[in-house]
């Protein structure tokens, strides 16, 4: 009598290269900070790790009670747009019409003294095509944040909790890290990502307490104004940030229309209403300014700092202005609206607010009102509410991880902003999450070390380059200012290959 053996259940089949982890374990990931790095990390984890770990749970803790609206407009390079596209965010921006940001082919540099063109930082090739299909984009930071949050809402395994200011960190007996918050609540997780920015509480209280942030000596003076759109150039500029999904709005020439488009998506409405009380209104439309000497984005160089102007909506009705200037640290209290309870001048004191605004306007006038270019003079004399944003950095060489906590973005390596600043945060998020997914069966220290070996050298090189670049924004004497103008075309040419490589870098190659 012969017994017939049952065939193997997978007989005749080829197993897939990647199948979900059959174990019932639940990996709990805690992310501190709901900025670009934090939200991008959550989305990247959902993309990279969820297929292998169906029970993945991701919680983002944001210290503010509402979504932060500070920071003005942000520049997205081709690399940043490509990363956002893969995370599902770029299509959300495209659907916002005018509010989705202004396409940027180049940043045009010119002399504020003479108006002479000094070259450009290009986001396209010689034929006007984007790098791998993507150009640059200038968009308000709040709009980008809302687009990222709307994608988060599609992932049931990701949640965001507001009003969670970190107090301290402990470790449990079962190898979990416990975050304790000032509201007396706590959360335990298997992995913690510190994405809480340049003044990171995770870095200063746990990972590397000897590495505080430090003021660079330079600050942004920022504002946004309503302005009539520029006349169209001789050749119709209908190209968009990428050829496939970006939608350009034509005929929309006033800000009220673009504001309404922001509220068309329900998920955007929810978050916008939560934070609208913090959004500073734009200045009244400015009709007596000379036309700006650039198509979309320009940088006026002077020996008293540099002035950036950039449209940040597709209808070119909103102009973002940012002066990069040297401000002594001793003057920062005079120029900032202090919201702390111990402040001598509470934030709602109208006298103090008026004094701060008057001081900042005088700072702009003293630096740029005598410029040779009329548009720069107009900006210097604007009756608008300038806001001060000091630039801080975190010196390289410190720790990026400890125990089950790893620092990403500015929390690990804050540097003065460059053209690709947002891309660095996105690179960190994507590269770490892919490293984690590819080595998920290894210990966290081993994974952290592999990520650090890939990331530290390029980041520290970028830090040094950013420091050299930012030295050109400090106050200069007459001769040094002329040398700055004379050598800028050569500097742009010399750095072109490095910039192009940055535009083409793909964090998904890890």
From TrEMBL:
Residues 221-297 are annotated as: Disordered. Transmembrane segments: none annotated. Residues 28-232 form the FAD-binding domain. InterPro entries: FAD-bd (IPR002938), FAD-dep_Monooxygenase_BioMet (IPR050493), FAD/NAD-bd_sf (IPR036188). Residues 235-267 have a biased composition (Low complexity). Residues 268-280 have a biased composition (Polar residues). It holds the Pfam family FAD_binding_3. The keyword Oxidoreductase applies. Coiled coil: none annotated. The keyword Oxidoreductase applies. Keywords: FAD, Flavoprotein, Monooxygenase, Oxidoreductase. PANTHER family: MONOOXYGENASE, PUTATIVE (AFU_ORTHOLOGUE AFUA_6G14510)-RELATED. Belongs to the paxM FAD-dependent monooxygenase family. This is FAD-binding domain-containing protein. It comes from Aspergillus cavernicola.
